[in-house]
Amino acid sequence: MLSKLSNQQKQYLSWLLTKKSADNSIDSLASTLIDSQVDLNPHQVDAALFAFKNPLSQGVLLADEVGLGKTIEAGLVIAQTWAERKKSILIITPANLRKQWYQELYDKFGLKAFIFEAKVYNQFKKEGYTKPFIQDDIIICSYQFAKSKANDIKNIAWDLVVIDEAHRLRNVYKKQNITANVIKQSLEHVHNKVLLTATPLQNSLLELYGLVSILDERVFGDLESFKSQFITGDKEVTLPQLRARLSMVCKRTLRQQVQPFVSYTARRAIVQDFTPSKEEQQLRELVAGYLRRPNLQALPVGQRQLISLVLWKLLASSTQAIAGALATMTARLEKKLIDQDSNILDELDDDYEALTESGDDYEELLEEDEVLSAQEKQAIELEIAELKEFQSLAINIKQQSKGQALLTALETAFEALQELGAERKAIIFTESKRTQEYLTELLKSTSYLEGLVLFNGTNNDDKAKKIYKEWIERYKGTDRVTGAKSADTRAALVDYFREKGSVMIATEAGAEGINLQFCSLIINYDLPWNPQRIEQRIGRCHRYGQKHDVVVVNFVDRSNEADSRVYDLLSEKFQLFDGVFGASDEILGTIGSGVDFEKRIAEIYQECRDPEEIAQSFESLQNELSAEINEAMLNTRNLLMNHFDENVLYRIKSDAVQIRQTYEQYLLALLNDEFSQHDANVMFDANGFQLDDAITIDGILFNAGRYDLAKTNTHEHVIRLNHPFVQSLLDRFKAQMLKPAKLVFDYDAYGLQVSSLKPFIGNSGFLIAELLEVSSLGRLEQHIVLSAMTNSGELLADDDPEKLLKLPMKSQVDIAHITLPEKIYLEQENRKNRILEEVNVRNLGFFDQEIIKLDGWADDLKNGLEVEIKEIDKAIKEARKSATIAASLHDKLNWQKTQRELEMKRTKLRRELFDRQDEIDMQRNELIGQLEGQLEQQVQVKKLFEIEWEII
Fold it and tell me: What sections of the sequence does the record tag as coiled-coil (predicted)?
């Protein structure tokens, strides 16, 4: 590491750390690679580079298989966009993934996001904000919210829009798909979109057409021309053409392809059977019978589907869970009797934490105020009495068979962990906060009490408060503390579980946005019906960084036909619990967010009573799934979308590691020099520095302690390129107006052999440094151009001038003036011209790609116009043939009349065809003209410094 730097070296390194490189080069991601708090895999860097590949592109589709980190890939694109001061960024995601996105962006990239939902939006509107979507932070919202606020989204000049689980929009080509079409139209003006999905093609090539049309309407022609060319055409001819078109906008990597870079552990399933007691079965039958009634006073008509689903789940969770919900429903009916307002969704939210987010995927009808008749009041009173009876029965069940089975399951699963060499840590998931409380009481009398920790949406129990308080004290004055109590409490609970805990009991809030790869036992005490939610739970532990096989325990009541069938379907069809890769992404993609699948299961519980009827309904559901997963279409998808090059990934891995390490050393060298200027008591190493005493520099306080680069994840203090002090420092160095100087460099002090510089030891000469800025295609590139020569006139070749500036400085003396030889100026001009030529060649390549795309689009439209004429040609031949073989004069005349009418229609269409083709050509030429204007280079050169140098 350079220990003492000249002003010229400080300026040079500052520009290296911040310059804007070509978008398709790994150098362009240098600052993001340094600041990211994640061990990046090469396929993720490759995907991010693909997203920036062509500045003329309207966006990309990143379609890696499940589990390969598409969120990280998009995070790199978001972080880089943010670093370029383009801060109007929107993320559209399924409701249940909003918190996960929020946490991942903060934890891994240090980026703050804002979850936008109806309550927040309405509050902004009340406060007079005309454009609530204009915020200082990245905005995250759900699909439903994006649809409902499409006009607002349309009026914002977004720098980047990311759409997660984008397969939900793949049927956008169908006019009846309202949500997809509304979102597409609201984003038509956005020139930088990233779509994420593991399943871009499920059943039809038209789905690919739909997704690509959201990115760019000019990759393909219109729908009819796409059908005629790629659906009904000769597949051997059209599929290679389609593959070539897609390769410009779509990137897909398979899990099996990256195994040399990412090691996967396996999943092991354990089924814990249990049989409810007679009292528990009686309660279940009574409540089930109640829920199946056609008319219920306690459930609003517009919300019945959602609330019934929740009640079925709470019934299977615990007697405490259903007792609490029954009490909520009773209270609501009692309020209704006396004409008081009551919102059952708000009240049940305490019973089932995922209710608010689930509600985003259900249509909600508001109840109208009405005066109750005497007959309705009597029905309500009877229903209240029933609900109180059910509640009393639930409360009086003192011992639950499922709870007792948990004690057995823990013992069995911990034995399995011991065999695997894993720590004794388990996360138990339940869908109910009341069940969480019951399980806490259950485990209090066991050896698990001491290491027990709860995790839910509020995290306000006494132990959580104590853990939070101790954590805040422990990390006081460090970058671990964000100041946001809810985020810090979550971090404190995870740290406690990692360091001291043995059992964490979590509600659905625990399945979002936390990483538990140090835990390898997941217990689904309550099994969600949504496979996406199950995969999300398991993914907390079964993820990159997990060192052991993950044991997954599921509770199944085999005496209940529906429960048993649900488990079999999730286990066998979805392959959620066994194997290396977990859930089949083909199937998960088919079900989208999983909400419709969840609704189907709820319908079976609601409508089917006897085992035979239940079995038949589940068989029907499984057959529907099988029909949707078309093997031929999967093969087509692989043929069209797999463009894997292992050699590229090896090169990227090497380059990314080297660039990251090099730039980190530049950053530390600058910090080291700055701290030394202020006589700080500090010790630097390759990963950061230890500051023994607090110090204030440029108004910024540095507390004593350990400061690490982002990658080390020590969490005491993190020093990043986007740290305010670093940004201020770099800006100061870059803005210096430097006088000529004589620098003496110490070759031996560098400690490494630089063979190309060794012959120059004892020599002296000159060096010139300039900043070359090139603007074209709507983007800026910055190049630091260095030229050096000896006093004897020998030019330093290739990158030797750069190497020279990285040698340790022995001494620095400012001088009044340097007279540089003409030869060094000529060399500098040659170097700048070579860079400009490289930029021009690269931009012409991008231009050619766009021309190819526009030619394909124009040809598609023209071919589409000709399809109808070809169909008429066929009809004319048929009419001519029919006229020839007609048995009577009347029939012969009729067929000839039909033939003439068709020929007249064909003539008219041919005239229109020429006019329409001319219009397409004019439109194409106009677009090309616009592109040609963007190709023009605007060049600026800024002198940085000139020096005399000597190597000793």
Answer: 338-365
